[in-house]
């Protein structure tokens, strides 16, 4: 296990990058502590896999350094970094038994058979595959094959970091929650540094202690799942995390007050600086309510999602979603919307520009 430090990291697939758009990864500075559970979350093409390949040694960055416990490994090949990777498609040997698959990484490094047996049995018990050890891997179900692939990454005790690259992509949806739970349990038991790459917010938020949200080669926010949901630092985070995502509304400022559709909107706290740029209000649907007075709107869709009802409204050309308990109003109904002030924020060019009341000094 190791602390991983990324220092002034940039990468371009062009031989002579000249402008920011030429870089697949913009400048990244990041520390991952020893033994932590982390997720890289973002849409396809945001740079997640590029960053993972740089950490593993499959790519050499155009600029910057990668440090393991303070040691510069930027130019070291993968086999000298003591990294285990679990990919979208299980990497196992179908002709070998489950036992021999789990034993292979240890035998390949010359470990004695007593040590091999001890580690294989320990990992097999954690994965709940002891009864499969004598089976050929070819006959396993896709989820069990991925379990064995995970086990091959965890069986070595000298691994600095275990990296998971979209490991549940090929798993049936009804089995994904089982593997997510098992992976979380494995991390708590083995305490290895783990980095989980995914575009699926559910996978990231249920696995990781800290989530790194990426967009267009940049890190837009790092935080706990609760922090990312409750206080998005960027409108992209608010939109990407949550279902439905955060409402983003155009606004204007007059004498320091925010207005939408000529209605004053009370913000969580004071505005930082003198904003210039694209001004928007961000409010999650969970904090929008229907009331007798407030912002006039028209209901355009009502969706019963089980525990709650999502009411989609239109106001001044913008869509606003509210999550409410009980039955929603009829489509086409005229309603009024209230925003919970402590959860209503101003964003300037995508970045948060308000301070919560309790943060004032």
From TrEMBL:
Pfam families: ABC_tran, OB_MalK. Gene3D superfamilies: 2.40.50.100, Nucleic acid-binding proteins (2.40.50.140), P-loop containing nucleotide triphosphate hydrolases (3.40.50.300). CDD domains: ABC_Carb_Solutes_like. It comes from the Bacteria. Residues 4-241 form the ABC transporter domain. Keywords: ATP-binding, Cell membrane, Membrane, Nucleotide-binding, Transport. GO terms for molecular function: ATP binding. Signal peptide: none annotated. The keyword Membrane applies. The keyword Nucleotide-binding applies. Belongs to the ABC transporter superfamily. This is ABC transporter ATP-binding protein. The lineage of its organism: Bacteria, Pseudomonadati, Pseudomonadota, Alphaproteobacteria, Rhodobacterales.
């Amino acid at each position: 296990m190791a602390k991983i430090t990324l220092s002034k990291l940039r990468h371009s697939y062009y031989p002579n990058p000249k402008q920011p758009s030429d870089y697949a990864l913009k400048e990244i500075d990041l520390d991952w502590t020893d033994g932590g559970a982390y997720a890289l979350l973002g849409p396809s093409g945001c740079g997640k896999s590029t960053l993972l390949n740089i950490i593993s040694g499959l790519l050499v960055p155009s600029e910057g350094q990668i440090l393991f416990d303070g040691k510069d490994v930027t130019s070291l090949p993968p086999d000298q970094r003591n990294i285990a990777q679990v990919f979208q498609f299980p990497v196992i040997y179908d002709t070998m038994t489950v036992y021999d698959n789990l034993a292979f990484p240890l035998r390949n490094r010359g470990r004695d058979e007593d040590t091999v047996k001890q580690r294989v049995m320990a990992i097999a018990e954690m994965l709940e595959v002891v009864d499969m050890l004598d089976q050929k891997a070819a006959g396993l179900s896709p989820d069990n094959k991925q379990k064995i692939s995970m086990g091959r990454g965890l069986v070595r005790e000298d691994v600095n970091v275990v990296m998971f690259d979209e490991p549940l992509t090929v798993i049936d949806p009804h089995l994904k929650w089982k593997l997510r739970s098992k992976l979380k349990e494995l991390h708590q038991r083995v305490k290895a540094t783990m980095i989980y790459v995914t575009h699926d917010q559910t996978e990231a938020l249920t696995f990781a202690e800290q989530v790194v949200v990426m967009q267009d080669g940049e890190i837009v926010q790092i935080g706990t799942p609760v922090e990312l949901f409750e206080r998005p630092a960027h409108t992209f985070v608010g939109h990407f995390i949550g279902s439905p995502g955060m409402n983003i509304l155009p606004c204007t400022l007059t004498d320091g007050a925010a207005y939408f559709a000529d209605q004053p909107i009370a913000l969580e706290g004071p505005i930082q600086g003198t904003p210039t740029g694209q001004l928007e209000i961000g409010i999650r649907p969970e904090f929008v309510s229907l009331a007798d007075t407030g912002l006039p709107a028209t209901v355009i869709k009502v969706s019963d999602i089980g525990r709650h009802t999502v009411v989609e409204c239109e106001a001044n050309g913008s869509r606003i979603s509210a999550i409410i308990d009980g039955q929603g109003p009829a489509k086409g109904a005229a309603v009024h919307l209230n925003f919970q002030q402590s959860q209503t924020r101003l964003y300037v060019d995508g970045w948060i520009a308000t301070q919560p009341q309790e943060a004032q000094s």
